[in-house]
Amino acid sequence: MQHHKNFIGGEWAAGTSDVPNINPSNMLDVIGHYDHADASQVERAIAAAAQAAPSWAVSNPQSRADALDRVGSEILARKEELGELLAREEGKTRPEGIGEVARAGAIFKFYAQECLRLRGDKLASVRPGIDVEVTREPVGVVGIIAPWNFPIAIPAWKIAPALAFGNSVVFKPAELVPASAWALAEIIGRAGLPSGVFNLVMGRGAVVGQALLDDPRVDAISFTGSTATGAKVAQAAIGRMAKVQIEMGGKNPLVVLDDADLDVAVHCALQGAFFSTGQRCTASSRLIVGKGIHSRFVAALTEKLAALRVDDALKAGTDIGPVVDQLQLDQDIDYIRIGREEGARLAVGGQLVKRDTPGFYLTPALFTDCSNEMRISREEIFGPVACVIPADSYEHALDLANDTPFGLSSGICTQSLKHATHYKRHAQAGMVMVNTPTAGVDYHVPFGGRKGSSYGSREQGSYAAEFFTTVKTSYCAA
Length: 478
Ligand code: NDP
Description:
single chain, alpha/beta, Aldehyde Dehydrogenase, Chain A, domain 1, Aldehyde Dehydrogenase, Chain A, domain 2, 2 domains, seven-stranded mixed beta sheet, 23 strands, globular, binds NADPH dihydro-nicotinamide-adenine-dinucleotide phosphate
């Protein structure tokens, strides 16, 4: 079986240990062995990135554009193969895996163009005979720490803008999903970048991630993951004045008003809360439903949920793949117990099921009779579990939607222009969705949230320049 090494200073380097990557649809299936780096190897990767940074920072934007475009083209050309690999290691279905890979390819192509679109400003000075210019420069060495639930799209939306704007990169993927990260690194490694500009170091967060946080040569950290780890990352980065961008969890509301189109609302709930096994930061795990539509909505959603096929991620016809691993499954099951103990009613699902192969199969669970104070309504479960919270009116629904420590994505289903417009303005979230699921976003516009969901500037689109560049104001006497 192939051993997959780390990529340091333009060379493939063996790690200090190797770890099997297990398929969550079939625990007997070992996808490959992936080398873990130790702190000294991370140190080498950072040194390589630091050495490459000055000349890469002033490189011709066309050469950066060409390299990123090559990466994007290869990802798109191999989307079926890479999508299958992603589904096999993470557990989202094959079509979902292919969709995520296609998105990663599109992101690299978008940032290839952004290399040529970075703007500055030239202003009149308030003093005679002086020119003022505002320009953007790369930040330097960027440490990228990614979660497991989008094994290629999230690395892509961090690595592509970092490279586009002239930064060098040390990338640490999540331990659970090294295969997609390694495949991406292998493509980037052949794209014609100078040695050291891009480095891959696989391994544990406490070792590899921590080494990135601690090293003063890492100028900026872009992190996506849980709120608990995000808080630690923020403290470490701010403690040594590194630039930091943190994307964390969500407990995203989907409001269904009495006047909603029932089919649209059920589709939004089903897609937003349960697809990708509910393992999305944008999952609508709180369904806030008007009393006038409540019973019809619950009946229709329950029927759809009961008909979903939970099975091997690679099988044709599977709607919902397995949960990513035993730890996450235990967390999902624990919250289902907590929900019951809190007095919520389990309307459907929440059962462990057996399939042809040993995997982490859980049927999607819907709780009704929930209050917004219950733990299942307040804490991110990160599995196929959602709760229905009844609302008396639009105003009540909006209050419930905003009453959460998180603020990533917030949705509403309604046919009222007045309520849709008001909701877009007053939802306390970074992204608002009207009559479309809370999960599922475009790649060329900003992504991120408020409150406990995000810290720092936005990711994606041209807004990513805010994080991956630093502003310089120059004055010149004529
Ligand atoms: P974790 O916080 O467990 O891990 C995220 C990354 O941080 C992993 O690479 C992990 O490494 C690493 N890490 C862990 N400990 C440290 C440390 N001490 N120092 C530095 N790095 C460390 O999150 P998950 O991977 O479980 O991802 C799920 C979470 O991500 C959910 O909360 C989800 O909502 C959130 N998320 C947010 C998104 C957003 O844009 N807002 C998008 C997608 C997910 P290792 O894997 O080795 O432990």
